[in-house]
Amino acid sequence: MSGPRIVLVGPMGVGKTTVGALLAERLDTDYRDTDADIVAAEGREISDIFFDEGERHFRDLEREAVRTALAEHRGVLALGGGAVLDKDTRELLADLPVVYLSMEANEAVRRTGLGLARPLLAINPRQQWKLLMEERRSLYTEVARAVVPTDERAPEEVAEAVIEALELGAEAVPGPDPSTNPTTSGADPSAGAGTAGTAPGTGTAPGKENQA
After folding, report:
1. What is the mean pLDDT of the chain?
2. Contact 192, 150 (CB under 8 A)
């Protein structure tokens, strides 16, 4: 099978960047983030692209960035929060090992905060986040082979849950024991993990964080 080894999707602030880097380390492969690709290509932040050219222009850039990354990258790939809005992108994700990292609204507001540069949460972030998720949740589930809740979980636990959900344990370097990891208890779970659930119809247990 060609394409990335793992593709992470989910809302802004869920921890795709941190978890993706951990997964790449565990699987001895490279990590790539399509939002970072856009920033590097444009020479400016995503929030600036939104404000200067609007969301439609950003989505055009995002579509091409995702297409390129899926064709080129063979490691762990994280997509921006709104990448799944594009029908062509969803078609490209079909049959790939996509994992949806999920979280609930209260956790999302706590993680993303009120002052971070997230253009779609500029006004009334809690309400805006809920509206975004109403639009996107079914799309995340549609493309996902596995769903991993992340609420109140440390990044290492999320990575382990992803590895288990995709049955990659035999290929992974052993991670730290969560019971001895000081980040597991009382840590900021801004990139946290959770137990894997089953994605409908699959039979499989379903840093600068992506901003849009």
Report:
1. 82
2. yes
